[in-house]
User: Fold this.
Amino acid sequence: MTHATNIIETEGLTKRFGDRVVVSGLDLRVPRGTAFGFLGHNGAGKTTLMRMLLGLTAPSAGWMWIDGHRLPAERAVALARVGAIVEEPHFHSHLTGRENLRIVAAVRGAEAQTRIEPALARVGLSERAGERVKTYSQGMRQRLGVARCLLIDPQLLMLDEPMNGLDPAGILEFRGMVRELVAEGRTVFLSSHLLDEIEKTCDAAAIIDQGRLIAQGPLEALLASETADVEIGCRPPDRAFELLRRHPAVASTSAIPGGVRIRLSRRDGVASINAELVGAGIAVFRLEAVHETLEQRFLQITTRIGGQP
Assistant:
């Protein structure tokens, strides 16, 4: 175990509902002080994992730790500074946003009371906090849920689809808020289907498919392609295409507007390719490595093992 570096750890974590295995042998590692994305198709087991970590459902097999404390044996101390939103947050709709937070803070103590206004400001609800929650949009309810989490000064926030209902400006604000929380040394664990936002927000991620963990690690490692593709903007592109399809460092070629896309058979071949094109009198004005997005990588991995995009 590496509790000093990971705030969440699981070993062989499994959950069955009858004969159906929802989570299977999960070995998850969530580094401290990061924004961590948890990705999977609907029904992949994301919410079930979060419910097990929070003690809302019991695992069928395996072990779990939060902040080095084993669950469920040390649940109270493990979850003392964990804020969570699993599925949609619920509130007393006839009360205002501020009144809802006051009810929660009353249970948490005087220190939590002092955090109400800063929490509302952090999630951008200060001006609407005096309005009844029944008038709130879904996005506002999500933000109020995050504010409620902040009342306990959490070291770990676990948020299930927290960007649901947010407009583009709200998503941008949320992304900034997450980065501020991480800069303070907190860990934010995000389950989301908005892969582009996970890529822009998170430092690391895990991908789950059909209940099994199929990849995890820093985003740059997850996005590292097994192949190296390069796009070359050149003139004339038809001559470049014919020359490159016979080049020993090129595995395949395809035409693109204003140039050629190649897949390298060896990664050190770019310099010789450029030299050969220029030597043949072909003007090269762009030579750019093609980087996969997180969405492309996610679909590639899950499709490979039988997932349904």
User: Anything to note?
Assistant: The first strand starts at residue 6 and ends at 17. The mean pLDDT is 89. The chain has twelve helices and 15 strands.
